[in-house]
Amino acid sequence: MDEEITIINEKTRNERIKNFFVKNKNLLLSIISIFIIIIISFFSYQAYKKGLRVSISDRYNSAVIEYEDKNKSEIVLKMKEIVLEKDSTYSPLALYFLIDNNLIDKKDTNNLFDVLINKTKLEKEIKNLIIYKKALFNADTSNEKELMDLLNPLINSNSVWKSHALYLAAEYFYSRKEKQKSKEFFNEILSLENANQDLIQKAQKRLNRDLSE
Questions:
Q1: Does the pLDDT value for residue 21 go beyond 80?
Q2: What's the confidence (pLDDT) of residue 63?
Q3: Is the distance from CB of 173 to CB of 182 less than 8 angstroms?
Q4: Helix (H) or strand (E) holding 29
Q5: Which of 89, 157, 165, 206 could form a disulfide with 151 if both were Cys (CB 3.0 to 4.6 A apart)?
Q6: Residues near 66 by beta carbon (within 8 Å), at least 6 away in sequence
Q7: Torsion of CA 140, 141, 143, 146, to 10 degrees
């Protein structure tokens, strides 16, 4: 008797499962199709990104070679285009190349810095490095507010570039003969736990030699 009940229950369960699939066939097929499309789209996008990265790399290397061969007519345009691609590796390299070879003016340089800082997906400390480089690039021509607006995101953080920002600020005020402000920034470097060791030595030397009064 128990065996017959078990058989009946099993048949009933199987029939319910069969009916469920029959009634919901279209829905299930749609779900499966969507799932397959998602998988295909994901791998297609990954392949596209990889291909795009290879293309950007080739364009960057080609532009460098053209520059070395003294064919500079298109180098600025090509490097600017690479920066605007917002690639985490080659966009910063392209901007640094333009800066190192003095190929663009200050306004264009700052605009491209802003593309990297505000529109490019970068690791946190890479972005902090670019912020520092922008401040360094502008230090000689900025007023106090402009420079501190650039440096404050680093100074008010725990970034590994904080001590570099403090040192730049300290030297900026020292060059303007604002010794008290300069001294405060140098002393802050000495109080940091993760300050760059070379900058600690330079800050201590500056304090002992020029700001000890």
A1: no
A2: 85
A3: yes
A4: helix 25-68
A5: 165
A6: 72, 74, 75, 78
A7: -100
Residue 191: count of CB within 10 angstroms of its CB: 8
Categorise residue 76: left if φ over 0, alpha if ψ from -120 to 50, beta otherwise.
alpha
- Helical packing angle, 162-175 and 197-210, nearest 10°: 20
Question: What's 59's DSSP letter?
Answer: H
Q: CB–CB of 182/211 below 8 Å?
A: yes
Burial class of residue 131, CB neighbours in 10 A (0-12, 13-18, 19+): buried
What is the value of pTM for the model shown? 0.75
Distance CA 93, CA 86 (A): 11
Residues 6+ apart with CB under 8 A from 108: 80
